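Lecture 7 notes: from sequence to structure.

We start with a single chain of 175 residues. Read the sequence below before looking at the structure.
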Amino acid sequence: MSRVRPSLLNVCEYHVRRCPMKQAVIVNNVQDDNTILVYYPNPKSEKSNSSRSFWGVKERTFPALNLEHFDLHEKDMVEILIDRNGAISAAFMMFIFPLLCFLAVYLIVGQFTDTEWILFLFGVLGLTSGIFANGLIKKIKGIGKIPTIIRVLSRAEILEWTTCNSACKECKGCG
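Now the structure, written as tokens:
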């Protein structure tokens, strides 16, 4: 009996279908159209004296589409579906692209000089240019796909989520 090894493409397609990027969020504002303003809950900062609560950092809201026309009210907890490709490209542009710019500028300038402080200076300039290029690309390209609300969480699911994501350390959800 021979075992057929799945190709990498089949494994990736299987992973995408089986592991969608879902996230629990709280409804902040219900607008007239299908757009709902939501934010990520942070029970750890509410229970512990973290720097976020010390400095009074407010939760940032972002839009989500209510294509299923759920009856939503403020403070409802819902689950959203995040575009996987958009999240991966945003993470790449934020973290990897500036490092690649640093490396490219450092290596190019290294062809002309061996002075360390000049290499360092131009490397940092390459890093900052990568960060500014990321911001410019984001302004030109726009926000991308808006997450979609896929379901409203029940009271039992909210209690389970709160228990697993609290700062109490009673379960393994906190780490």
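The chain has two domains: 14-83+145-164, 89-141. Keep this in mind for problem set 3.
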